[in-house]
Amino acid sequence: MGYPFMYGMDPVLMGISAVCLVLSLAAQWLVKSAFARYSRVANTRNLSGAEAAQKMLSAEGIVGVAIRRYNGSWLSDHYDPSSRVINLSPDVYDGRSVAAVGIACHEAGHALQHAQKYAFLGLRTLLVPTAGLGSKLGIPLIFIGMALGSLGLAKAGLILFGAVFVFQLITLPVELNASARAKQALLAHGIVGTGREAAGVSSVLNAAALTYVAAAIASLMELLYWAWRLGLIGGRRSNR
Questions:
Q1: In this structure, are residues 76 and 134 in contact, taking their beta carbons and an 8 Å threshold?
Q2: Measured between alpha carbons, how far is 65 from 58 in angstroms, rounded to an integer?
Q3: What pLDDT score was predicted for residue 168?
Q4: Handedness of CA 212, 34, 105, 87 (dihedral sign)
Q5: Annotated catalytic residue 107
Q6: Per annotation, catalytic residue among 51, 60, 107, 197
Q7: pLDDT (tens digit, 0 to 9) for every residue of the chain, 240 residues total?
Q8: 78 by DSSP, 3-state: which?
Q9: Is 231 strand, coil or helix?
Q10: Are 96 and 43 in contact (CB under 8 A)?
Q11: Other CB atoms closer than 10 Å to residue 7's CB: what's the count?
């Protein structure tokens, strides 16, 4: 939550910060709990995450996508559309659990989206530079505008920060669709079995989706707060 110490002990901002922190921690706990539980459940085909992702891509007729071990932080798995590379963390790349297979095939789901020109994925990719700029400059510009008494500058910062919320909002259908593609392909191509394995994949991917929901809610709450502080909604204009 952008620099609350620069804005005094505002109870509204403190309350929003607390709610966002709880949402984030709860979402992270659910992901870790689901992954830990199903990382102990082996998939019956004994496929590693990398092998499962490759099998899914091949079965769906997708070629030219590389799958690489990515030595990032825990569950830093992602698909890079610019290079057409699925980057998998070591636990997922080498893991032979239901959890590893689910995460790997979720990323393969993004490769399917890219190959099939899924509109929301393309839009999210286009918004990456603007969202990055907004995350760095949005809140500072709001503070500078308020300090200088320049509503125009503060509004510019709010618009930039709004781009972060739009990016996170568009991320929701992208991630949910990738998970839906993974769940369908895993069963259709016999990569996981029905029953406990399919339930485990759903549990892990549903928990992961909640992290994106929490991020979008946090951005929306902060966006509305600053719009309220600037008097753009709710009829309040800060003099501070």
A1: no
A2: 10
A3: 95
A4: positive
A5: yes
A6: 107
A7: 444 434 456 788 889 889 999 999 999 999 999 999 999 998 889 999 999 999 999 999 999 999 999 887 777 899 999 999 999 999 999 999 999 999 999 999 999 999 999 999 999 999 999 999 999 999 999 999 999 999 999 999 999 999 999 999 999 999 999 999 999 999 899 888 888 888 999 999 999 999 999 999 999 999 999 999 898 887 555 544
A8: strand
A9: coil
A10: yes
A11: 18
Q: How many whole angstroms separate alpha carbon 216 and alpha carbon 236? A: 24
**Which residues, 6 or more positions from 60, have their beta carbon under 8 angstroms from its beta carbon?**
112, 185
Task: Quote the tokens at residue 172.
Answer: 């929701």
Q: Write out the H or E segment, with its range, that includes residue 160.
A: helix 151-188
Q: Could you give the CA distance from residue 127 to residue 18 in angstroms, rounded to a whole number?
A: 28
**What's the half-sphere exposure (Cβ side, CA atoms, 13 Å) at 230?**
26
> Do residues 169 and 216 make contact, with C-beta atoms less than 8 angstroms apart?
yes
> What does the alpha-carbon distance between residue 80 and residue 118 come to, in Å, rounded to a whole number?
15
Which residue type is seen at 16? I
Q: Which of 210, 191, 189 is nearest to 201 (CA)?
A: 191
**Angle 98-115/151-188 helices, nearest 10 degrees?**
110
Pair 175, 209: CB distance under 8 Å: yes
pTM score of the predicted model: 0.86
The structure tokens listed for 85 are: 């590379």
